[in-house]
Specification:
With about 180 residues, the protein is mostly beta strands. The protein has one domain: Beta Barrel (Lipocalin), CATH 2.40.128.110. Helix content is about 5%, strand content about 60%. The chain contains one helix and eleven strands; from the N terminus they run ββββββαβββββ. The protein has an eight-stranded antiparallel barrel with strand order 1-4-5-7-8-9-10-11. It starts with a strand and ends with a strand. About 20% of the residues are buried.
Length: about 180
Amino acid sequence: MKTSVWNLDQAHTSINFAVRHMVVSKVRGHFANFSGTLRFDDADLSRSTAEVRIDASSLYTGAAERDVHLRSPDFFDVARFPDIHFRSKRVEQVSRTKFRIVGDLTIRDQTREVTLDAAYGGHAVDPWGNERLGFVAEATVDRKAFGLKWNQLLEAGGAIVGDQVDIELELEAVRANVEAAA
């Protein structure tokens, strides 16, 4: 049995996050620079793997001052910890198109196990003959578990930044020209 190798297409993939701001709304952002490889076994999904590296300094929320603060030692500390890394440990089939990806997420040298709820979006061949796979995945993580602890309390109660961060992924991968032996 062979496992096909797929590389994330940065132009058609988005790595997004959302976190509560001042209890009443959410701030959304994304990371612009990343790379990743999927090893996909469509006959036995449990043998599939994923690995993604994200350039932490490429975060963007639409507010330059906030982005500078998020890159600072108060949050991601990108000068000391330039990369965010995810490596799957196992894939669990839930239904024909839904599955869970359990893996290690590392932010600021803090590694925690996370579970991504994922759905297979399908397979297509683009006009240039490249095979593509699509997936969506999401998880919620506690930012403090990764050392992202900065906050300020509000006079009316609550905090400026929520503890729970929603991660939302739209992934498109292109088949590499190699096959990996299983």
